[in-house]
Amino acid sequence: MQSTILIIDDEKKLSGLLARIIGLEGYDVLEAATGKEGLKTLMQEDVLLVISDVKLPDVNGVDLVKAIKEKKPYVEVINLTAYGTIADGVKSIKNGAFNYITKGDDNDKIIPLVNQAVEKAILQRRVFDLEKKVANKYSFAKIIGYSKPLLEAVSLARKVAATDTTVLLLGETGTGKEVFASAIHYEGNRKLMPFVAVNCSSFSAELLESELFGYKAGAFTGAQKDKKGLFEEANNGTIFLDEIGEMNLELQAKLLRVLESKSFIKVGDTQTTKVNVRILAATNRDLQKEAEAGHFRMDLFYRLSVFTISLPSLNERKGDIELLANHYLREFATKTGKRPLKMNSDFIDLLNRHHWKGNIRELKNVIERVVILAENDTLSSDLLPVEFKYGSTMHSALDLASVERQHIQKVLAHTHGNKTETARLLGIGLTTLYRKLDEYQIS
Question: Cα torsion for 348, 350, 353, 357, to the nearest 10°?
Answer without folding.
Answer: -100
